[in-house]
Amino acid sequence: MGYDMRRTHMCGDLREGHAGEEVALCGWVNTRRDHGGVIFLDLRDRSGLVQLVCNPELSPRAHALAHQARAEYVMACRGEVRLRPPEAVNPALATGKVEVMVRELELLNPAQTPPFEIQEGVTPDESLRLRYRYLDLRRSVMQETLLLRAAVTRTVRSYLDENGFIELETPMLTKSTPEGARDFVVPSRLQPGRFYALPQSPQLFKQLLMVAGFDRYYQVVKCFRDEDLRADRQPEFTQIDMEMSFVDADEVMTTVEGMFSRVFREVRGFEMKTPLPRLTWRRSMELYGDDRPDLRFGMTISELTELFASSESRLFREALGRGESVRGFRLDGVTSPSRKILDELVEFARGLGSAGLIWVVREGDDLRSPLSRHLSEEEKTGIVEGLGLGEGEAGLLLLGTFEETSERLSRLRRHCVERFGMEPRTPWSMVWIVDFPLFEWDEEEGRYKSNHHPFTSPKTEHLDYLEKEPLRVLSDSYDLVINGSEVGGGSIRIHRRDLQERVFRLLGLGEEEAWEKFGFLLEALEYGAPPHGGVAFGLDRLVMLLAGRDNIRDVIAFPKTQSGTDLLTGAPDVLYPQQLGELRLKTI
Amino acid sequence: MGYDMRRTHMCGDLREGHAGEEVALCGWVNTRRDHGGVIFLDLRDRSGLVQLVCNPELSPRAHALAHQARAEYVMACRGEVRLRPPEAVNPALATGKVEVMVRELELLNPAQTPPFEIQEGVTPDESLRLRYRYLDLRRSVMQETLLLRAAVTRTVRSYLDENGFIELETPMLTKSTPEGARDFVVPSRLQPGRFYALPQSPQLFKQLLMVAGFDRYYQVVKCFRDEDLRADRQPEFTQIDMEMSFVDADEVMTTVEGMFSRVFREVRGFEMKTPLPRLTWRRSMELYGDDRPDLRFGMTISELTELFASSESRLFREALGRGESVRGFRLDGVTSPSRKILDELVEFARGLGSAGLIWVVREGDDLRSPLSRHLSEEEKTGIVEGLGLGEGEAGLLLLGTFEETSERLSRLRRHCVERFGMEPRTPWSMVWIVDFPLFEWDEEEGRYKSNHHPFTSPKTEHLDYLEKEPLRVLSDSYDLVINGSEVGGGSIRIHRRDLQERVFRLLGLGEEEAWEKFGFLLEALEYGAPPHGGVAFGLDRLVMLLAGRDNIRDVIAFPKTQSGTDLLTGAPDVLYPQQLGELRLKTI
User: Rounded to whole angstroms, how far apart are CA atoms B517 and B495?
Assistant: First the structure.
C-alpha cells in the first residue's frame, strides 16, 4: 500500500543485455549478506532471484533499510542494472552475471521468521508444510510442479480445442451416480430431507451431451469420492474428461495418443512413438501378471505348465493335478546372483503368500536350483529355452492358479526392478490395455459387478452369450498405462436402451430400481442416442508422473491429509446450530 | 455398434467443392420428405444439415430404410456429393447447393417421437425443456449459445495464459468463507459431526496463492451459494477468478480491459475502446442514481436543489427544509409527450413510492407543467438550463433524499428506455464503477457491514478516519458494468495483519471469532504477504449478455429450477438410510 514503484521487470529475467537500464523490482528477500560497507540482498519472485546491492554511498536510506531486512520480507526497489565484476559472477544463477545497484528501497511488508527454511534442498516435515502451505508453495520445487500442472492443462485444452472438442460444464450439485465409491452429499435447505451428490465423474452428463448432439465434449473437472483415503487418493481430484460420438475404440485411442504426444513433447521434450502398443487385458495378465504393466522393463512372464505335464516331481504333479500353472520370468539386471540374493527373493515371494519360489540359474549346460535333482534334462532345457536364460542368468518360477501366479509374479517383478536398481529402457513407456472383461464376480455380494461401470458396451461379437456366460464377455474398453501406473481409461458406451437394460438385469438391478436410478438415461437412449465412447484421465496422477513426484499431495496446491483434513484452514469444521437447524439436520 | 462407416465429413461442411466426392456422414434425421419415387432426408449434426437423396434405383435397401426413418432417428450414410439442379438450390442453407446421393444407409438408433419439435423458431415450455434437456440442447439456438460459452472461456484463458497468469486449482471441499450468502455444506464421514463448505468464491485461497508468490493467478471455477433463488441466480455458478501481486487498482482494470477487448472482438466482432470510462461510485449515483448504469442511453440526472433554495412553492420549501433534494433528467426518445404518457409516468413513479413526479415540457419560452403557476421565471429558466431541454422536450423531477431520488430516478430511467423503445447509442457500453464505500450500515443488525467483503482494502488516504468515520472511508474497489449489468468486480486487498484486524473489529468480529474464522489468513499476512488485488466475473451472466439471452438457464447446459431442482435427473433426492447412518446424521 502506498508504494508507487510500478514493477518494470521480473527478478529472474534480468540479463547482461539489461546493463545500464533503470529497473523497478518487487519480491521477497531470499538471503541477506552484510559485507561491512555494502549489503547484498537476493530478491526473489516467481521468475527467480537477482542480487541487489545496497551501497550506503548511493543511498543511505536504502542501505539502512536493507540492514533491517530479514528473510521473506516483501520489498520493492529501483535501481540500475550493472554487470557484476568477473570474480563475482555466479554461473549457477540465471541472473548471475548482473546485479542491481539500489537507489530506492521500500519495505512493503515485514515477515515473521518462517517455521521452516525456504531453500532448495530442504524438505520440511509434511504436516508443517501443509499447515503453512503458502510458505511451502514458495519453494521452487513446488512452484515448478504447479507451473507444470498448468502447462499440462493448457496443452490438453489447446489440443482438444483444435480437434473439435467443446468444453461444456456439467453440474456439481447432482444426483448420485454409482461409480463404485461413496458419494459426498450436500443437504438441500430448500428441500429439507433431500440431498445432492457431488459427482464421482460427469459420466452420465457427458453421455447426455452426446445424445444432445455435441459430438465431442471435454472438461477438466473436479470429481469427488468419499473413500477411506489411501496415500495416493484425495477426496477431490481433477479429471480430464472426454466423450465422442460416432467413434469406435480405435478412434478414441488415436485421439488420446495425439493429445498425450503433445503433452509429452511440450512439457517433457519427449517424442512419443505412436500408435502406442495395445495389449489385450488377457495378454497383459499372461505377460506381466498385471493390467498396468511397466514396459520400461523386460522380465515378461512365460508359462511353462505344459513342460511339466508328465513331471517326475511330486511338487509339479500335484500342482498340475489341481489345475495350477507353472509360470515365471528371467531375472534381468543381475547375473550369477548369489545364494543370499536368491534366498531373499524366496523370502519376498513367501511374503506374497506363495508356498515357494523356485529359482534356477544357468551354469554352463546345467541349472543350479534347489530343485535341480528333481528336474529331468528335458525340463531343464525347457526352462532355459522357455525363459530364454543365457549363461549365469537366473529364472524365477511360481506354481499356483493363473490369478495367484499373476498377482505374485507381477509384484515380484516390480520388487526386482527396485531391488536391483534396474535402468529403464526408455524414460517413458505407454501402453493401452484393451478388452477388459465386462463383469467380474463379486464373491462377497454373490453377484456380477461391472469391471468399469454399468454403461460400458460389451463387444458386439460377445452379445450372444451375455446372459449365458457373462464372465466370458469382453468389453470395448481401454486403459492407458504409463510407467506402470494407470492414468485413465474409458470405453465405448451402450447407446441402446434394450442392451442397457440387459446389463442392468445382469448386475442385479431390478426394473424399478434401474428406473429410479437411471430412468433419465434409459429414456434418453430412446430419443436418438448416437453410438459414443469416451475416456477420462486423472490429472493429479498424470502430473505426478510427469513431475517425477511420488506423493499426490505434491501436485495439488491445497491438498488434504489422509483423514480428509485441510491442515491450513482446519476444514472440515463444526457448523453453527443455526446452520444445522436450517438444513433440518441433527448430528448423532 | 457394429457399423463400420467411419465418418469422412460433418454434414454442415459440404460445399460445391465436394461434388463428385464419396463421403460418409452420421447424424440425426431432421426432416423426411417422401416424393413418391425419391425420399429426401435432411441429416443433421453439430455443424448443420445436408440433404440426402435416397433413390430406389441407386439403392433399394437405402430407400426402404429411408422410408421407415422418422425425425431424430440416428443414421449413417455413404454416398456421392453432387450439385443440386439449379431449381433445387436452397440459398438459406449453407449446404444448399449440394446433396448426397445415398448408396448405403444404416440405422444406428431409432427414436421415439420427441415430446416437442426440434425446429428453429419453436421454443417449448421451459419445464419440458429442462426435463428433456438432451433434446432441448439439440436446438440450434442452444448449441450456438453453449459454443459461444466455450469460445468465451477459451478466449479468456488464452489471454490470461499469454499475460503471465497461472491457472491454479483451489479446493471445493473447504472451510466456510462468509461472502454474504449461506454456504452449501458437505458432511464428513471420516470426521462425524464436521462439515466442509463448498466455496462461495476462492477468495481466501487466491490471496494465499499471492502470499505463496505465484504472482498472477486465474481459474474458471464453480462457486456455490445457498440462496433463495431469484430468476437470474443458480445455486452453482461459474466464476472467472483472478488475482495479481504488486499491483494497484489501475493495473488490474487495465489487464481486465485487455481481456474483455479480446473477448468482444473474438466472439462478437466488436472493437471496444479502451481505457474504459471510470466513474466513482458517488458520481455514478449522482448521474444515474445507480451503481450499475447503462451508458447506452443518456438521461443523466441533474441536481436542481440549489435552484429552489428560495422557492415560493411550499412543496419545494418543505422538502428542502427536510434536507431533501430536487433531481431529475430530460426525457429522451419522445418529444412533446402527450398528457396521457406523462400521467402514465406519474403513475409509474407513484408505484416506486414517490409522492409525486413533477413533469415539465418546454413549449417556446414557457414550461408546460402541473406546477407551472408555482414556478418563478428564474426557476423555469433554471430547469430548462439544468436539464438541457430543447423545444418540446420533457423533464422529469423528483423530490426526496439523495438515496430515495437515486433509486427512483434510476428505475424511472430504465422504465423510460423500455417504454419508449429507445435505440442504444452503441451495442455495448462498458464502464468501471470505482471507489465504493468500504462499509455500509446494517440497520437491522445494528452494525457495519462490508460493501464488498472484509478483505477489501480501504484507500490509503482514508486510513486515518477508519475508526472515527467509517462510512466516509472509500475502498480500492471496482465493478465492471456492461449494458447496465454488473458482470463482476474486485478490489485491492488488505495485505497487512494490523489493518485486517482493524477492519474485523469494525465489523464487530471479536478477536477470538476473527481468529477462529480467519486465523490462517491473519497468520499468512505476517509471513511476507505482498500487496495484491484481483477481480472475479460471473461467466454465466457474461455469456448471457454476449448471447443476448435474458434467462441465465439458457446459458447453462444442465441448470436448476428456482427451487434448486434438476428436472432431468430429479436431484436433490432422498438418501438411503445407510448413507445417513454412515454420516451420523438424522433428518428432522
Answer: 17
For chain B positions 512-571, those within 8 Å of chain A (CB to CB) are 520, 524-531, 556-558, 560, 563-566, 568-571
Kindly provide the ipTM of the predicted complex, given to two decimals.
Answer: 0.95
Q: Are residues B263 and B308 in the same domain?
A: no
- Are B402 and B508 in a shared domain? no
Contact residues, B window 328-367, toward A, CB-based 8 Å cutoff: none
Residue pLDDT, tens place only, A73-132? 999 999 999 999 999 999 999 999 999 999 999 999 999 999 999 887 878 899 999 999
Residue-wise pLDDT for A290-345, tens only, equals: 999 999 999 999 999 999 998 888 899 999 999 999 999 999 988 899 999 999 99
Q: What is the tally of structural domains in chain B?
A: 4
Q: Is the peptide bond before B275 cis (omega within 30 degrees of 0)?
A: yes
Side chain identity at residue A233, one-letter code:
R
C-alpha to C-alpha distance for B166 and B157, rounded to whole angstroms: 10
DSSP state of A16: G
Q: Please name the residue of chain A whose CA is at the shortest distance from the CA of residue B71.
A: A528
- Strand arrangement, sheet containing A358-363: A302-303, A325-331, A394-400, A358-363, A366-368
What is the tally of helices (H) and strands (E) in chain A? 15, 23
User: Which residues have C-beta within 8 Å of that of residue A469, sequence separation ≥ 6?
Assistant: none
Angle between helix axes B402-419 and B339-351 (nearest 10 degrees) is: 130
Q: Domain residues for B375?
A: 297-419
B183 vs A: CB within 8 A: yes
The Cα–Cα gap between A511 and A496 comes to 16
- Determine the residue type at A249: A
Q: Which chain B positions have a beta carbon within 8 Å of A109's beta carbon?
A: 495-496, 525, 528-531
CB contact burial B342-355 (16+ within 10 A = b; e otherwise): beebbebbeebebe
The answer to whether residue A380 is domain-embedded is yes
* B441 in the same domain as B323: no
Cβ-contact A224, A238 below 8 angstroms: no
Q: pLDDT tens across A544-584, in order?
A: 999 999 999 999 999 999 899 999 999 999 988 888 898 99
Q: Express each pLDDT in B133-153 by its tens digit.
A: 999 999 999 999 999 999 999
Largest distance between two CA atoms of chain B: 96
Nearest CB to B569: which of A245, A520, A558? A520
Do the Cβ atoms of A311 and A453 come closer than 8 Å?
no
Strands B216-224 and B166-167: parallel
Domain-ending residue, one of A419, A447, A469: A419
First vs last C-alpha separation in chain B: 49
A577 touches chain B (CB under 8 A): no
Q: What is the pLDDT of residue A176?
A: 76
pTM for the model stands at: 0.95
Looking at A40-164, list the stretches that DSSP marks H as alpha helix, in order from N- to C-terminal side: 60-68, 126-131, 133-136, 140-162
Q: Band of the pLDDT at B1, cuts 50, 70, 90?
A: very low
In contact, A217 and A243? CB cutoff 8 Å: yes
DSSP letter, residue A51? E
- Distance (Å, rounded) from C-alpha A168 to C-alpha B354? 47
Q: What are phi and psi of A195, to 5 degrees?
A: -135, 145
**Which chain A residues in 222-281 lie under 8 Å from chain B, judged by CB atoms?**
222, 224, 226, 228-229, 235-236, 238, 245-246, 248, 251
pLDDT band at B3 (very low <50, low <70, confident <90, very high): low
> CB-side exposure of A197: number of CA atoms within 13 Å?
26
> What pLDDT sits at residue A1?
40
According to DSSP, the β-strands at B366-368 and B302-303 are unpaired
C-alpha cell at A496: 441402446
Task: Give residue for cell 495483519.
Answer: B497
Which of the listed residues A419, A449, A465 is the one where a domain comes to its end?
Answer: A419
